[in-house]
Amino acid sequence: MTVHHHSDRPYEWVGSLSAKRAALTPDRVGLVDADTGAEYTYAELDRRANRSARLLARFGVEKGDRVAVVSRNRPEQVDWYFATAKLGAVLAPLSHRLAPRELAAMLDDIEPRLLIVETPFVADVRDALERDDAPTVDSLLSLRDEGDTVETERFQPYDEVLPEDDSPVDVTDIALSDPHLFLHTGGSTGLPKQVVQTHGAIAWNAFNTVLSWGLRPDDVTPMIFPFFHTGGWNVLTIALFHLGGTVVISREVDPGDVLSTVEQRAATVFVSVPAVLRFMVEHDDWERTDLSSLRFVKSGGGPCRDAIIEAWSERGLEISQGYGLTECGPNNFAMPEGFPREKTDSIGVPGLYVDARVVDDEGAVVPPGEVGELELASPHASDGYWRNEEATAETFGRVTEETDANGDDAWVSTGDLARTDEEGYFYIEGRKKNMFVSGGENVYPPEVESVITDHPKVDEAVVVPVPDDRWGEVGKAVVEGDESLTLEELRTFLDGRLARFKIPRYLAFVDEMPTSGPSKIDRQAVEAAFGGDTGSTER
């Protein structure tokens, strides 16, 4: 007898979320474009997805093919999410903040069947595709607004080729174990890694979020996370699409506009990075904006300062801190009902379908109060990294006697240090990984350092995080080399080679890098010496 695992068995319903939701709540508004004021019901979203699916198929997109996108948050991104689901294809949204060099490398890794680019980023993508190391992408579309002009020699205008036929399409039979999203996360040694998120993992995260956070069908949220982040899709958007809730998107994140959206749309839930929460508190409209519709507010993507938590709490709002990562979830924890105020600096307790533990370097669970590495296990964990077996084994590979030998239930190593208290609340204590977070974006110093050392005046470089009131943390380049190098000169050199959020804001020099062994730079010594302040070393 052949035994089929449910996750491996193909079903038509796996790719039919937009059609199923349209059948249940056709007239409920699922998406709002704050920039145009346009509202889209679930019936309209499914019809748009049908048109998009026909377009993708016209360009040869089939099950398993990748559709790469470089765009801000727009309704079309939702169309492509639902359309790729119907076809069994993979949506690979890429950050529009990446430099051409980075885009070229990622496109080479993904090998998309089709690449769709919003007009403001066509020039960067064109530069990426003209590099000597760039891949060949056969089909290119440009997504434009009225009045935009764009070259048509290589990029066909999306609006001109989109079919009119919005009738139902045949939905491909897809298994829960099939991939649906590639979401990139920073590369500790260079190229960002593509995290493979399956239909099943995405659905399990939605279930976790709905049930652990208490989401409701009438919930409304302003979405401030970009769609090239797991936050854009998995923090609230897909969970609310499962329920029939409403997601409000915009191309740019303006704190005043977010405040206005909360009031005008009577938003009920809001999840944000700490920087945006702070900008909203500091905005002129903060005191006069009606926030009473919000049931809860969550901060994620880095630690939130006590003063910001206090400012939101003083408005009578329940605010707490979340924790997640692209590789697992991201909604792994929840705050219990009526949690004590003094627990606000924790990330809460594991969600309904999440196991969490804190372990030492040998993998043994440490007692409450002791700091170790946070590990997670859940059906909403990613399948691993695209074409990167070594990194996959390192992050997803800890198998114990209690887990399946095939690794299906292996623990995900987060690289973050944590502890628990006697009541089972988890607290993040720092990073085991060599990484910092700037404005909600992960920055991996080795990647930045490898580009800095290409500068002819630089012999060695170490990038350390320093505090920043606006972004939480920013990079400081500590350089061994020619001290005539200025910060402006270095930043100009890095512009176009690195995304702007990765480019250091400060520059310092050392005569010789400290070492902790033969030819091994002592990063901890550099960070201890240069990571605490900014002013004295700014160039």
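Second entry:
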Amino acid sequence: MTLTEAQARHAQFAGEIRRHDHAYYVAAKPVISDLDYDLLYKELQAIEKDFPDLVTPESPTQRVGGAPLSEFKSVRHAIPMMSLDNTYSQAELQEFVQRVQKLLPGETLEWVVEPKVDGLAVSLRYEGGNFLVGATRGDGTHGDDITTNLRTIRSLPLSLGAPGGDGQASHRRNAAGGDRDVVGGPETACGCPVPVADREADQMAAPAVLEVRGEVYMTRSGFEKLNAERVAAGEEAFANPRNSAAGSLKQLDPKIVAQRPLAIVLYGLGQVAEGRWPGTQQALLEWLKALGFKTPERTWFCRSAEELLAAIAELDQVRGGFNYETDGAVIKLNDFDQQRRIGATTKAPRWAIAYKYAAEQARTRLKAITVQVGRTGALTPVAELEPVFLAGSTIGRATLHNEDYIRAKDIRIGDMVVIEKAGEVIPAVVAVELAARTGAEPGFTFPTACPECGAATAKETGPDDTTGAIWRCVNRECPAQVRGRIEHWCSRGAMDIEGGGEVMAAQLVKHGLVRDVADLYALKLEQLVALERMGEKSAGNFLAALAVSKTRDLWRLLFGLGILHIGAGGAKSLGRHFPSLEAILTADEEALQTADDIGVVIAQSLLEWRADGANQSLIERLRAAGLNFTSQLYQSQGAAGPLAGKSFVLTGTLPTLTREAAAARIEAAGGRVSGSVSKKTDYVVAGAEAGSKLEKAQKLGVKIIGETELLELTGV
């Protein structure tokens, strides 16, 4: 076959595959069998093997993912991606409509309502009709370049055809999709709108430069299948589709992303240059559909507040049938010229708002109450339920918190109960349907013997008598506690040991290889290789991660020890105040309390822990294993950093720094990071999707800064 013949066949097969991808992933109407599709794909691969120069970034074969990345680069958005104001109140929604009407007196207002998909906001840039760059929203001005990962999503077109033509984009469909509280105003390169009549919209070709904004999400069906596969493989299940989608796009290995059931929906514009675009949101969605993009599955056109309320009510009724998570509705002024004239605040447009639905609830039968034992010996009651579908997943268990919670709500075995997903992640029993009782439902009594090891349990109250009574297993050698301590020590927030999760901890304890965290550092390769599903490479990686953990800073070690009442914040406070573990363990109660945020409860807990002979032995064994006992956070009074005495609160997603990295910079400069805003807070560092902490800071008059100002303060 000559090069000319190969080029023709390559174009033919690539075009067919693109059309079939569109029919399957966007229109949900496949026209050929999987076998026939695979044969087409193999033909294309064979041509590219013989003629490597025909491989381009737009080729269907390039969706499988390339080589792993070392890091994500930062991308500046040509047009900022703003957040939406949101509300849970119908009255506030009506007030929003009234505000817009006052800004446009005497004008007719038309609205578009779209589903609010719970995913990750992205911006796609096309030049010459080809997909060039894709980025996360980040702080609205800069985002992460995730182009390689986005290319693996089959419903994302790599090239745009002409509306009405023979290419991929000529297909029309009703696709699953939605919106989110992220928007980009429709603007040209100069920021000036160039609207056209709606009737012309579906005939316009893609401009030379086209930025499209939308949402990447994980399908419900794909999420359930993925979790089933992970559980079957002994891996931890993902929490929810939204977190799974966001985590997938942040993978540095595109091949992993290609295996995830991700989809994308597009609903807005960023920069447009050398071309035309529609004049209304309604027409925009039709135009994007004609270009080959997946757009919202259903939208509503409204002319009044009453029609808007009816639309969001109808959306609430039908959204359970969508193959993606939704948490609300997005209301947008339809006319782009009106949008431009009323403009935006520094944070959000004045022409759109997100209406969020209340947390989803479901009723089901409580069949039994079981008890889980944690790393500190705390016994947590768990409701065993008749499985019920709620907020995108089937729920069979829910937390009951503690004994006081059960008594306050009078929860009994056999009750019909109402469950709710707190933050749409953790299910909890929130109410009992007392009218459904027969009188035969027994109450629940906490066990006096540990369900894991059989040792005695003891009841204790919280330190301030407000956190509820806690039952604990008194046996520190209880297998459940040992597993919990190992898992906590290896966790990302503590010693950050890759591979040391729940499955590994369970196996190590089950086979008697580890009784405490010091035993981890005596493990041998042959011991690990003998474990289930543990190959030599995985075992070697785990041993290497253990070796690296020996260099972790003191606060991580202190937190990883799991001392009662000492969290990451308390461990960092001790690390700032004391230069070494020896200094902490030899300080008396008064000296300990001179450290920020260390009160009598934490000080006494630390003193009790160090007085235990077993803990003293543990420290010596960790010392012998070569772990770091000095604090990099420590700053003597005479060498205080530039932020000494300053209190910071972090909220939202920063452009380039992770939450941990930002906190580390603040602490290295002598500052302190707190989890809540108060009048004593000096700075709130706000990024994208900042929430209630930002609002509280504004009310209290606390200074609000971004990542750039933070870097300046820390001397970068």
